[in-house]
Amino acid sequence: MPIDAAKALAAEPRTGEITWTTKDVQLYHLGVGAGVPATDPDELRYTLESRLHVLPSFATVAGAGAPGVISGLSMPGVEVELAKVLHGGQSLRVHRPIPAEGTATATNRLAAVYDKGKAAILVLRTEVTDPDGPLWTNDSQIFVRGEGGWGGDRGPTTRPDPPIGDPDRTVERPIREDQALLYRLSGDWNPLHADPEFAKLAGFERPILHGLCTYGITLKAVVDTLLGGDVTRVRGYSTRFAGVVYPGETLRIRMWRQEGGVRVAVSAVERGDTPVLADTVVDHS
Question: How many CB atoms sit inside 10 A of residue 61's CB?
Fold first, then answer.
């Protein structure tokens, strides 16, 4: 069995230093669609170094290291083919606002391995601290097709109830044809998002957008639409990747206000509102 759950969970955490600059933050923001219109004062907060604030989802690429989907596959006890792997979900807890540049310590470990029968789910946890204390905690859920069935823990089965009633706000965000090529410059070099032949091997008609790019685009839409553009209000952000997005499509982002948070549903307009992000919640102050 390519996944040895006991060995993976017993492995020592991996700790290393990560560093990022304002240029890294600006590149990430451009990768999730910031800067349109280019001279809009609200957009300049994402693109101009003298006004720069940091969208919390930048935490998923800070340090330009391999994202959870890739680094999780290099953990002890895990030997699987990249073409069998999909990003199942992501959750982020922000302990305080992320600085526009910094150096921090990142600790990675497998927090859970679940047996879903026909697939396995790996939960890679990344905890990041700097000299002033904790900055953020990231959990990446890695879905590995064909690697379940060993009789292990199936993991949580509960899901949040769907939002009730009409959304409070709905916005649409067009995805550029080169969006995945731009986003991958922040560190996710998986050929699934650029190489047509690799995409076909993985079962897709053409390269798909990174799930974490959709994740960032969605958080920016919520911040700009319902949180007054104030990134420091975000406390947590979780989602389940329910479907793929192809560059050139349009995202429809529906938002429901709730106490202390926003429920969100995201779909691909051109494919009959096919869901792409589900069970999505932004916690805020």
Answer: 25
Phi and psi for 278 in degrees, rounded to 5?
Answer: -135, 170
Catalytic residue among 53, 87, 193, 210: 193
- For 145, half-sphere exposure in the C-beta direction (CA atoms, 13 angstrom radius) is 9
pLDDT per residue, tens digit, the chain (285 aa), is: 578 878 888 888 989 999 999 999 999 999 999 999 999 999 999 999 999 999 999 999 998 755 555 655 667 778 777 667 778 999 999 999 999 999 999 999 999 999 998 888 999 999 999 999 999 999 999 888 888 888 888 988 778 888 889 999 999 999 999 999 999 999 988 899 999 999 998 889 999 999 999 999 999 999 999 999 999 999 999 999 999 999 999 999 999 999 999 999 999 999 999 999 999 999 999
Q: Active-site residue among 115, 139, 188, 224? A: 188
Burial class (CB in 10 A: 0-12, 13-18, 19+), 18: middle
User: Known catalytic residue: 273?
Assistant: no
Q: How far is it, in rounded angstroms, from Cα 4 to Cα 113?
A: 9
CA dihedral (213, 218, 223, 227) in degrees, to 10, reads: -160
Helices 211-226 and 22-31: angle between axes, nearest 10 degrees: 90
| 284 belongs to the catalytic site | no
pTM: 0.93
- Torsion 41-102-61-95 (CA) sign: negative
